[in-house]
Automatic annotation (TrEMBL):
InterPro entries: P-loop_NTPase, Terminase_L_N, Viral_DNA_packaging_terminase. Gene3D superfamilies: 3.30.420.280, P-loop containing nucleotide triphosphate hydrolases. This is Phage terminase large subunit N-terminal domain-containing protein. It comes from marine sediment metagenome. Coiled coil: none annotated. Residues 30-179 form the Phage terminase large subunit N-terminal domain.
């Protein structure tokens, strides 16, 4: 048995849900999971396993957009597939021909579903046994139906369509594979044994995987603290969907934590006020207009991760000169990160003539971007309110200067849909909302080292006590270091020299561990 290197295919290290997704024999396998559940790893592992066990097989890994396929899914595939399984010269990564050929003759190709040319059908000639679709919540039902007829390669071998997705409410995926299915519980971990886990129909198996399955506490691979941070900062509906894998629809307000009377609203802040607040980043979000209003929102973020929307421009039929003049009246305009709607590149060119160089907004799903803004609106235990000085405050504050920004966020609603597709209500104005969203999505998340410690909290309330405990901490650290030095010396004196012992043969041990795991 070949020893598989770290970071490559590891069947013995699969989580329970990943093992089921990899080995189950069903024509349709659906892996719905929260953030960080290893859905793409499951998808790629299943494809690798099925292509390796059947010689001269054919499979394809798909995603809606080509850029996302190359930047995300193909990178996961390259990490999963052992390079020793490839035929010599079997990996091709030229544009238009991206495929891997295994030593047993099986071929895995990569493709995208969406074409800007409506008449072009680049998947029309597909002839494979296995199709794997990553981020399948992006795919429409009619696109899925067209793919069913493409799994016709060779009689006598099993055929399968596998999809990995984030839950997206009562979408067509939920209706086809979860609604009316036989529900099984009994996850092997005690914390999850009473949760719905597997949904069975005659020709399909669908998994509902919560993020907690992949936490270190349950033997998973997520970084320490990732899950806890998400539960702290996400609003309740996002916790339900993106951590607990709920298929419930979003309803009501887009930003449930925010209203015109909430703690997010603060008095005006001048640039001089902000400069006294440990600001580390300045930003400008731009939503272009014409007959509809232009909306520009200025944002400053401090070292604790608190963002302050402190000024806005909101005007229909504004000229580029007016916009440029308003942007440049702030002393920090040049150093600010400036983000504009990615579809308005002509406006980017015009603003560049005024030395205003903008980044295009990130092309992510609207629901994901709304979730990022909601994360700023959600109270966080370690954040202190800038006015009341109380902890458990949000990370986003809107000053009274930003009238339209406040109004649009207060009135924003989810669109009621019978299809389960979650979108904001198009009848509600979204110009200032989009401008703020562009810049908040673009700003990097604050580093953990920037977050306040308990001593920082104490410094705010009682500086003399904080100084005392800082001194105690230094003394304690010095004593611990001295103790570590003594223990290390003791170990060196008592241990025998084992450096000349022969290297242990671990290959047999690896085989035993793999067999014991599955």
């Amino acid at each position: 048995m070949e020893k598989i290197a770290s970071g490559q295919l590891d069947l013995a290290g699969l989580l329970p849900s990943q093992a089921i997704a990899t080995f189950v024999e069903k024509p349709r396998v659906i892996i719905a999971g929260g953030y960080g559940t290893g859905k793409s790893v499951s998808l790629c592992t299943r494809m690798a396993y099925r292509m390796a066990r059947t010689p001269f097989n054919r499979g394809i890994i798909l995603r809606l957009h080509a850029a996302d396929l190359r930047e995300s899914t193909m990178q996961v595939w390259d990490e999963v597939l052992p390079t020793s399984w490839l035929r010599k010269g079997g990996r091709t990564r030229s544009k238009g021909m991206e495929r891997d050929v295994l030593k047993n003759g099986s071929v895995i190709t990569f493709g995208h579903i969406y074409d800007t040319q409506k008449s072009k059908q680049h998947i029309a000639s597909l002839n494979v046994s296995d199709i794997a679709i990553d981020q399948a919540e992006e795919v429409q039902e009619d696109q899925y139906l067209k793919l069913i007829a493409r799994t016709r390669f060779r009689a006598g071998i099993s055929r399968s369509i596998t999809m990995a997705l984030n839950p997206a409410g009562h979408s067509w995926h939920w209706r086809r594979f979860y609604q009316g299915a036989k529900v099984l519980k009994g996850h092997p971990h005690p914390l999850l044994k009473d949760r719905p886990w597997i949904y069975l129909k005659e020709s399909s198996i669908a998994l509902q995987v919560a993020t907690i399955e992949n936490t270190p506490q349950l033997g998973g691979y997520l970084p320490q603290g990732f899950y806890e941070d998400m539960r702290t900062e996400f609003p309740p509906e996002y916790i339900a969907r993106y951590l607990d894998c709920s298929f419930e629809d979003f309803e009501g307000k887009l930003y449930k934590a925010y209203d015109l009377e909430s703690a997010h609203n603060i008095p005006p802040l001048s640039v001089a006020d902000l400069e006294q607040m440990d600001i580390v980043e300045w930003g400008i979000g731009i939503d272009t207009g014409g007959a509809a209003p232009w909306a520009i929102v200025r944002v400053a973020r401090d070292k604790w991760g608190r963002a302050f929307a402190y000024d806005e421009f909101y005007k229909a039929n504004a000229t580029i000169r007016e916009v440029a003049t308003w942007i440049q009246r702030d002393p920090h305009w040049y150093e600010a990160i400036k983000v504009i709607d990615y579809e308005n590149r002509p406006v980017m060119t015009e603003l560049a003539q005024y030395n205003i160089h903008c980044l295009p907004s990130r092309k992510k799903s609207k629901v994901a971007n709304i979730g990022r803004v909601n994360g700023y609106f959600t109270p966080v235990p370690y954040i202190q309110h800038p006015i009341t000085k109380k902890y458990g405050a949000p990370r986003l504050y809107i000053t009274d200067e930003c009238t339209w920004t406040k109004r649009e966020h207060d009135r924003a609603l989810w669109k009621q849909s019978d299809t389960g597709e979650n979108k904001p209500d198009p009848h509600q104005p979204d110009h200032a909302r989009d401008a703020l969203e562009y810049i908040l999505v673009q700003l990097p998340e604050p580093q953990k080292k920037m977050l306040p410690t308990k001593l920082d909290f104490l410094q705010q309330v009682d500086p003399s006590s904080a100084s005392f405990w800082k001194a105690c901490k230094k003394i304690d650290k010095r004593r611990r270091d001295q103790g570590n030095d003594l223990r290390e010396a003791h170990t060196m004196l008592n241990e025998s020299d084992t450096s000349l012992l022969p290297e242990a043969d671990t290959e047999s041990l690896d085989i035993v561990e793999a067999f014991y795991g599955w």
